[in-house]
Here is the input.
Amino acid sequence: MPDGLVIVIVAGLVATACGLLGPFLVLRRIALLSDAVSHAVLPGIVAVWLVAQTRAPLPVIIGAAAFAVVCVLAIDALRATGLVASDAAIALVFPALFALGVLGITRFASGIHLDLDATIYGEIAFVPFDTVQVGGFEMARSGLVLAGVVALNLVLVTLLWKELKATTFDPDFSATVRLRPRLLSRLLLVAVAITAVASFDAVGAILVVTLLIVPAATAYLLTDRLAVMVGLAVGVGWVGAAGGYALALPLDSSIAGAMGLVCTACFVVALLASPKRGVLARWLRRARRAPVAPPAVSP
Amino acid sequence: MFGLPYTDAVVVAGALVLGITSGVLGAFAVLRRRSLVGDAVAHSTLPGVCIAFLVAGVKDVPGLLVGAAVAGVVAALLMVGIERSSRIPPDAATGVVLSGFFALGVVLLTHLANSTDADQAGLENYLFGQAAGLLASDVAVMAGLGVVALVVVGVARRALTATLFDPGYAGAIGLPVRVLETVMTALLVVAVVIGVRIVGAILMVAMLVVPTVTARQLADRFPRVLLLAGVVGALVGVAGALTATRGELPTGPVVVLTGFAVAVAALMFAPGRGVLWRTRRLAARRRAVRRDAVLADPAAPVTGPGDRLTRAGLRRQGLLAADGRTLTPAGERAAADLADRRALWTAWLAHGPSVHLPDAREPTRPTCAPASARTPSPSSAPCPAGPNHDPRTRDSRALFQRLAHRPASRWIRARESLDSGGRVADGRGGACLTGW
Here is the structure.
């Protein structure tokens, strides 16, 4: 397989995994959780280094995933007190975890080169070079991992579709009919944490944060149906993956950045030209409305 | 200052100034549920820095700062614009702008790196400073901005409060809502741009959010929250910076962790509001329910440890007999009291709205003459003898009268006397409140 195709497919897998979960994050108004997770994994990497003195991918991913889960559960617990809004809960937890990681590096690991770029915040351009042999075929390792994550998310979302839908749109009702919104919310958050960590390793933090938020927000502008929204989010993610790769080659720039840029361009197009909710559509509606006479002044 | 060497004193002073400024300005972000605007602005400055570098061609600090500030303001305004012009919720708008700008910045940065000479190296690190590397001039700039921000907040306090909590009302009374919001956003952006350059994005996020979250647990009025946020910001900054210099640790992370600890402590122990207080209230209510359940049915099977504890307590109070299955005479009285309260409450729920009580009465019969009026006009009929003729109401009145001799129903008796016998005593001179 040509390297370009591998890169686009791996990015598309990330887009699929993120597109399955992103709409729920956007609808639950916790979209910035992905940004929080991308910072909160640092102490996990440091802890793995301190305990096992290793930077091998598997233990690092496990350590990072552990702290990502700690991060989302801490945010959930803070939110559950009802004393802080979810945005403030996010903004409280992830700086603390990141600070813990920085403190760990400067205190115990300053001698080695342990930074985010080198360990977990992967670079998508290197994906085709890291391969494993499966049944005689040479496959990209991160592609296999991501295929597993996509399958996991797909199972989660299809099995719990109506539960997730109900708890997202009406938590009080779903608590009344015993759908356990807290448990479902935690499940979703853990899935986000695992997806994020697995994807950081392959494509880098920027792209994961972008793919969790931007395609879902784009889809939210285009449809009122949740199933369509999830499908559109995955589609926009694939458009971003393919378009970004095509854009990055002539620009000679970061592939992940270009993919993010194409996704954002999709969002801008949807914002302006969405048939029902776009800015242009609203202007047209306003213009087409009959010119209103100034209200007559009553005597 | 504090007997510290010069560099440490500068760091502590910087943390103090930064704490006050970001504490006060952060309140406007946190209370609008836009806590992560600071984070988004910090990331959004990257393309601004790249473009400033492209335009100027050199890495000079003021030029890059201007580029960063312009990009930050554009990003902040775009967030507001996306929210206003579509149904995208605020956090998603913040996320879209954050990732879009950061992706643009990364593309520009790598494009620069691959197309020009090595002059641009380290551009991305230009923004993410270290608290330990503070200079006195940085502190002076931050202090100047802080004074400007405090003056603006002080002068426009009422207008800002109205805009913050009820923009619709603020617009209706003629306040320039858009201008006020833009001014506050611009102040926040400038604070973030300068703060990020000095202490880094993550510390900035924490310093914007921690003071207000803490202050909000301790006060309910906005001026007090603002004041407390400034104080908490200063305390967290100074305490963290001092700890860091004593322990020879990096300043930023220690300040962040101090702030986190303070915020969590406030969430736990805030008087009357914290998690601990709420747990206590809940436990007291749970105990009362258990006690009532035992009093209502002492012979019921024991359900669990909580129930057993309640029964032991009742035995100690002399309400439950030694066998734990029957009530003592005092217990019987308490149970009768409880039954009264329950019956009264049930009756109130069922018939409350139709009960004729002086305070709850509406002036429905304005034509009847007040009893105490000195010259009743011939046209107005005298008030009917009973206060109410609706049969449904009479039934509920009878029910309340039956209950009225019970001790728990003392207030009903007071009402009854006002209502029927105390027609004159209620001071308004009539059974129906004419002219209300």
Q: What stands out?
A: The CA atoms of residues 284 and 290 of chain A lie 12 Å apart.
